[in-house]
Structures are given as structure tokens and as C-alpha cells.
Amino acid sequence: MELDPKNTQAVLVAQEIRTLILNGVFTPGQPLRQDALCERLNVSRTPLRHALQSLAEDGLVEVAGFKGARVAILDQGMVDDLFQMRMLLEPLALQSALPRLTKVDFAKAEMVLDAAEAEQEPSRLSQLNWDFHRALYGPSNRETLMRTIQQINTASAFAEVIANSIGARRSDSADEHRRLLEACRAGDQASASSLLTDHLRRAHVAVQ
Amino acid sequence: MELDPKNTQAVLVAQEIRTLILNGVFTPGQPLRQDALCERLNVSRTPLRHALQSLAEDGLVEVAGFKGARVAILDQGMVDDLFQMRMLLEPLALQSALPRLTKVDFAKAEMVLDAAEAEQEPSRLSQLNWDFHRALYGPSNRETLMRTIQQINTASAFAEVIANSIGARRSDSADEHRRLLEACRAGDQASASSLLTDHLRRAHVAVQ
DNA sequence: CAAAATCAGATTGGATCCAATTATGGAATT
DNA sequence: AATTCCATAATTGGATCCAATCTGATTTTG
Fold first, then answer.
1. By CA distance, what is B59's nearest residue in A?
2. A27 lies in which domain range?
3. How many whole angstroms from its chain centre is CA A118?
4. How high is the ipTM of this complex?
5. Which of A126, A128, B77, B165 could form a disulfide with A116 if both were Cys (CB 3.0 to 4.6 A apart)?
């Protein structure tokens, strides 16, 4: 019933570069030369180019024909779009998932929150943030909706890392996550929705 | 001021395959062998693989590692997700664009509608449909929002072609488009929004 | 001297070849 | 006869090589 995780070099390299970008090793606007990345990551240009294309879809890099790839430069409009979309789509996913959430899901979400409190590295912290949200949305079983939300989350996480709000808001964000989790546990749809929207609004403001 | 259209073989081939899928030449579930496509489209496998990856992002093909690519199979849940997302995101884009719409935009939209009335081929018709919506949303200048909407529209157009609703609803859809355009011309935000939502709801129902 | 043209180097996109994985068919075994 | 096992073919992913495009400096020209 599981579809193969596709352990191909292209996706592994994409993940490596994603980590490098989220950790600030590669900064916005920085050119990403294919040969340099190949040597650094020990792969040929074929999987690397697929990785760059994949990262471009996520909005982490911008690629112009024959001109090469650069780490994406986020402007305010882009950030506004990302968070406004999240505020529309994520409550929908949460509403669909809420009636299906089980003790196991809550436990998973709580474990993720605990792990996040101990994590410092931006890339891993944003991964844990997404893991938390996914734990709550995933049981909706709405794969297409989830795919879009995940894509937007990746770019949004990038914006938070750039603005360093992911570090500055660590504690507040953790509190908001825990309150949201409790509302979900209680099955309170209205509270959960409004807590989620507030959480996203604050995250948005912190990035500006 | 224009960014290069990236006239690379990979994107040209992607467009060709997209057309073949939307026109029903390739049917859902059909395996897409790389060598066969290469011979048919007269390109090597390198740009073809990039094209397949790009189509996978659009949700038109599914690709599993080492197992090859297939034309995507749409289920009801996927269709529901697509239209529900459209109903959330497109009114937002329209609201942002409305105050900025000019005579030129309206003229463009009307030209597209006229062209659509004379068009039969599904792939071109769905392109014109998107052109119309883009004419109304584009002046919002919200590139990130537009990118997400376009992506969802591509998959949604595929669903409409499969269900043949793009043909069956041609006349109704044209009427709804013209009414929406008039509301925009009048600068009536509330009407425009509700007409758009209705339009999308009917398109959704017609696909089921 | 400024601006346009041009030429060399650097860099990306595409074609071809090789390696890794999966699918297929037949033989061996029970 | 059905099933497992294994070998071979088919297919995809990756590495390397070639072609096309861009970049930068130098030269040429007004």
C-alpha cells in the first residue's frame, strides 16, 4: 500500500541542497553553479539538474534558461501570498482531518513538539514544524490538498528562516502549537480553526 | 522587463505531451515509455525526462522510481481538492486584481472568450479558459499566488477534459464567463466574487 | 574617448553511453 | 500442475561528452 520513496540521487541531492539553503549556507540571490555543486555533493550534473528543477518548483531556487540557477529572493508580496494561501488552505485540511484524528496522531504530534523544543538547526526545525502540521492534517487523507500545502509550506519555511523568525518565535510558536493540539484533542473545531489561523497570522507578521 | 520564455526543448516537449494528454491521445493510466516518446517527439531522453518531471509537478503524470511514468489517474477526492482549492484561491486573486483592471484587460478577456467560442480542441479550449481567468487575475501582480492557481488549474483542466465536461459545459461556461466579465467591468466586487464561486461550483459538479 | 562589434572563456542544455533496477519467461522443484 | 528460482531482456537513472548560449574583456570604429 506504500509507494516507493524513490531513493534516487536526484531527490537525495535535492534534499541536501534544500538543507543548505534553509541553514543559510546558500543565501538568497547566490548563484548555484552546476559544476561547483556537483563537486561539493559528489554527483554528476544529470541528477543535479533534476534536483534544481525540483527545488525551483518548491520556490527555493529561481532558474532562467541558459542563465543558471540562483537561490530564490523572497519579496514581501511573495511572503504575503504564501501566508494568505496557508490561512485559506490549512484550516480546510484541519477541518477535514479533525474527526479522524486518533490518539496515535495526537501522540505523534506531541512527540514532534518535544523534539522541536530541543532542535536548533533551522532546516531540522522547519522539518519538525511541518511534521507537526502534517500530523494534524494528514488524516484528512486529501493527498492533493496536502501536496499543495506542503509545497507552500516549504517556501514559507524558507521565508521564516531568512527572517530568523523561526528562531525568534520558537517559544511562542511552541505554545501556539500546544494550544492548537489541545483544541484538536478536545475535538473543538471552531477553536482549532481559529487557533490555527492566529498561529499563521502571527508567523506571517513575524516574517515581515 | 520580460523574463525569458525559456525556449528549451524540455519545456517545448512538456507542452507537446501536455497537449497530447489533454486531447485524450494519452489516456489516464497509460504508461509513458521514454524511448517511445523520444522517437515520437524527436528528442533525446535528457529533455524528455525533464519534461516528465515538470508534468508530474502539474499532476498530469505520475512517476514512480525506476518504474516509469504513467498518465495520472484522477479520483474523486483529487477532483474535489482541486476545485475546493480553486474556490478559495481564485476569489482572492480576483479581489486583488479587480481595482487594477483596465479597459485593455477587459478587451483581452473578451477576445479570449470570442476565440473560445470557435475552438473545439480540448487542449486549446482549456488554454483559452485559463487565458480568460488569467486576464482577470493577472493584474493583481501576485506572482506566487498566480503560480499556485495556474498549477491547480492545469490539473483541473485535465479533470474537465476526462469528464468531457469541458465540451458539455461549453455554452454554460461561456455564459458564466461573460456574466463574470460584466461584473468585473462594473467593478462590483461582491457580484464578481459570487459569480466566480458559482462558476467554479458548477464546473466542479459537472466533473463528478 | 565612447560605443559598438567581436572573440575567447565559462556555463548551461542536449545527446549518447554505461550502470542499476525492474519486469518477463523458462526451468527446476515439490 | 503450481510455485519458486534464476537468468535474460527491457527500462529507467546516472555519467560523460558535445553543442548552444551567455558573459566579459579586448578591439575596432565613429
1. A144
2. 9-71
3. 18
4. 0.94
5. A128
Query: Could you tell me where the DSSP H helices lie in A34-185?
Result: 34-41, 45-58, 76-97, 103-118, 122-137, 143-162, 165-168, 170-185
* Residue A8, CA atoms < 13 Å, CB-side half-sphere: 16
Q: Say whether A70 sits in a helix, a strand or coil.
A: strand
Domain count across chain B: 2
Q: Residue A61: give its domain's CATH number.
A: 1.10.10.10
Which residues, given as ranges, of chain A have pLDDT below 50? 1-2
**A64 and A100 share one domain:** no
Q: Do A129 and A34 have their domain in common?
A: no
Q: What is the CATH number of the domain that holds A129?
A: 1.20.120.530
Sign, Cα dihedral of A199, B140, B142, A168:
negative
Please report the sign of the dihedral spanned by the C-alpha atoms of residue B151, residue B154, residue B158, residue B163: positive
φ/ψ of residue A70, rounded to 5: -135, 155
d(CA A135, CA A100): 11
pLDDT digits (tens, 9 = 90+) for B8-31: 999 999 999 999 999 999 999 999
